[in-house]
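Reviewers of the previous submission asked for a worked example of the structure-prediction workflow described in the proposal, so we include one complete record here. The input consisted solely of the amino acid sequence. No template or homolog information was supplied to the procedure at any stage.
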Amino acid sequence: MAIREIVLGSFLASFFEVLFDKLTSLALGYVQQEGISVALLEEWKEMLVTIDAVLADAEERQLDGNHLVKLWLDDVRDLAYDMEDLLDEFALKVVQVKSEVESGTSIGGVKWKFSCFGQHKSSMLNLIPRSLVSKTKVQEIKGRLETIVTGKARLSLKENVVDRSNYTNKRDPTSSLPEPRFFGREKEEAQVLELLISEVENSDATLSIVPIVGMGGVGKTALAQRLYNDSKVKSYFERRAWVCVSDVFDVLDITKTILRSFTGLSCEGEDLDGLQVKLKDSLSGKKFLVVLDDVWNENYGKWTDLLKPFEAGAKVSKIIITTRNLPVASIRGASPYPLEELSLDNCTSLLAFHALGVTNFKSHPYLEAIGKELAEKCKGLPLAAKMLGGALCNERNPGKWKSILNNRIWDLPKGKKDEVLPVLKLSYVHLPSYLKRCFAYCAVFPKDYEIEKDELVLLWIAEGFLDGQKANDDISRLGWDHFDELVGHALAQGSLC
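From that input alone, the workflow returned the following structure tokens.
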């Protein structure tokens, strides 16, 4: 997975949460015995909070190509690792001391029995001699924290400039109008079309949901647009509506958009009940098709609320959902239709179309070899091919093509890369918190590195990512489940990450 640039800032944010937890749970009596003041650790916390507040802005600036900010983030990451190592060392010493005391073994040459602590077991921390952990290292970390905070001011990083939980403002609403050219989806288009216009009624449900599932940028929306505008679909369904749902699953707004598409009414100022009654009347006995594009909601209650009026429609009615999240696809028991990556030939044709206005390189043979290498970098993602082609629009100079070829795939000119990265960020943002760190860990591997599932799970275990999440569960099984969840969120494929 090419994720280093995408999740570094988010990874650090989740890493900081771990550091805060470890600082909070630290045995302060032991730390004081080491000659380290509690006030010093509080200074750590304050500086971490200050750094954490600007990580979102630093991430955005790094993605815009700011080299100094990238170096600053690298320093923050290195310091975070060193802090975690030291805190783990403290925690290990505390565990060792407790074990020695409770077993009656010696500490500092003196043999202690468990009973000697009686009801004052916590006082054992005051009897521990100075260990090998030096307060010099703590002071060193404080100095590095101060340097990083000073660097933050020098780079003019802003606090809380980006809301990490919401990238919808960066994704333009989709339209039902199809792409000008469509490549390599003839089989998928025919199969889903058959699902839509099939006269076989579902005896167990009033309407059928057809979820199109795949990773970000694989072309789910483009396929849905083609189907929505197909002549057979138009003649088969009496009502059609397209809704770009994206991050916020607002039942009122979705209902309003659908009703407006069906009736042309403005629907302003009405409550949900009034809108749903009108929608139910409009759909009564009618065959309808609704497309809900880019859906993330997994809440069964919200789905139930939204679908109430649709029960009045004809049983052959359909709802298409496009999502990159398998749990969304299965929320109503629907069978997902997985959309795989494009072939290299189709990616090449798509890139050529957006770059040169033609579907091949016959009239530009000197660009063909470079074009195919660029298409290969797209990894079968139509969105990547489209953005790369757009970056090279009407560009005939082989030097420019080679320049982009030698950069990483997402290092597109400013304004172009901004259209691609939010697609990938959004998948990360929607991960459960316990998965974010596991996924972000993959950033330690080189670009395009392939790692076996079992090997990755073992590394997660070694890093302590799976500790304490589900007591009594087999930890390897937990890791495999986490990997499967990443696959379900379209952030991993097959048995590779």
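Confidence is low (pLDDT under 50) at residues 106-133, 162-170, 408-423. We consider this example representative of the routine output the project will generate in years two and three.
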